[in-house]
Amino acid sequence: MKAIIPAAGLGTRFLPATKTIAKEMLPVLSKPTIQYVVEEALGAQADEVIIVNSEQKKSIEEYFSPNPDLVSMLDGANKSSYAREVEHAGSLPVSFVLQPEALGLGHAVMMASDNVLSAKDGAEPFYVLLGDVLVPDNTILPRMLEISKEHNGASVIAVYQVPHDQVNRFGVISGSAIEDDVWKVTGLVEKPPIEEAPTDLAIFGRYLLSPRIMELLATTAPGAGGEIQLTDAMIELLKTEEMYALVIDGSEGFDVGTIESWLTTSISLAMRDEKLRKTIFETFHHK
Ligand code: G1P
């Protein structure tokens, strides 16, 4: 099973750092954010992760390439735990496709079309993971996969309840609950004005999509914001295939899309580590 991670965005919110560092390479603790996302996909039965990259962000490619010189230098200097980490990052099954122009999320996903449609076991559902949210406990994709299997390989998206004044920042679903936390989706709308939003259930950034979406993306016209929207192709998909939504708890994800949320995520994950937690408490105790 394949997973696609779009990573060609500019990272404007992190300027000036992102003048030379890809947004996805910003660390949370010792790992770049994108490694969390890659490992999440691999931990949910993906066997290859395709990163949709831009020409300017070759550092991501370099990061996931082996570096035997660095590994042997670290081993020679008795720093084998670092050596293993470096080796690990360079051995993950990650490949790259280029998105020549930032024409939207749908366009980014479509760049990996050949990779998905030419799978050796025939085209099968694939994941899309947006890199602005980390799910370090990997609680979402395995449940989505289960729901898809229960419904003959149907598409499944993760959604969560957002405050009403924020629905216009997201893709929003309509449909009805078939279980406590599962909806059958009947409609979707990208970034609706609040008065046109059918529900407050917003697409979260984790998708398990039928390969048919790739054909539909090829004929999807620009939509909201003038961009080729994944949501618009999913609306087309709904005409011929079933789609389900897993309602997750927003706290399952850790946002890294803004300075504030990235910082909060770093602190939250640091608090899970006994040594770092102690350092934080000691540092800020008297301030
Ligand atoms: C994208 C999707 C949107 C989804 C959101 C989740 O929007 O188009 O449907 O709700 O991600 O973060 P973007 O944030 O790229 O504008």
Give a topology summary.
Layout: E1 2-6, E2 27-28, E3 31-32, H1 33-42, E4 48-53, H2 58-63, H3 68-76, H4 80-91, E5 94-98, H5 105-110, H6 113-117, E6 126-129, E7 133-134, H7 141-150, E8 155-161, E9 171-179, E10 182-190, E11 201-209, H8 212-218, H9 230-237, E12 243-247, E13 254-255, H10 259-270, H11 274-284
Parallel strand pairs: 1-4, 1-6, 4-5, 8-12
Antiparallel strand pairs: 2-3, 6-11, 7-13, 8-11, 9-10, 10-12
Helix pairs in contact: 3-4, 8-9
Bound molecules: 1-O-phosphono-alpha-D-glucopyranose.
Structural description of this entry:
With about 290 residues, the protein is α/β, with parallel strands linked by helices. It has a single domain, classed as Spore Coat Polysaccharide Biosynthesis Protein SpsA, Chain A, CATH 3.90.550.10. The chain has helices at about 35-40, 60-65, 70-75, 80-90, 105-110, 115, 140-150, 210-220, 230-235, 260-270, 275-285; strands at about 1-5, 25-30, 30, 50-55, 95-100, 125-130, 135, 155-160, 170-180, 180-190, 200-210, 245, 255. The strands form three sheets. A nine-stranded mixed sheet has the order 5-4-1-6-11-8-12-10-9. Strands 2-3 form a two-stranded antiparallel ribbon. α3 (about 70-75) packs antiparallel against α4. The longest helix has 12 residues, at about 80-90. It starts with a strand and ends with a helix. The model has no long low-confidence stretch (mean pLDDT about 95). Bound molecules: 1-O-phosphono-alpha-D-glucopyranose (G1P). 1-O-phosphono-alpha-D-glucopyranose (G1P) binds near residues 130, 203, 229 and 230.
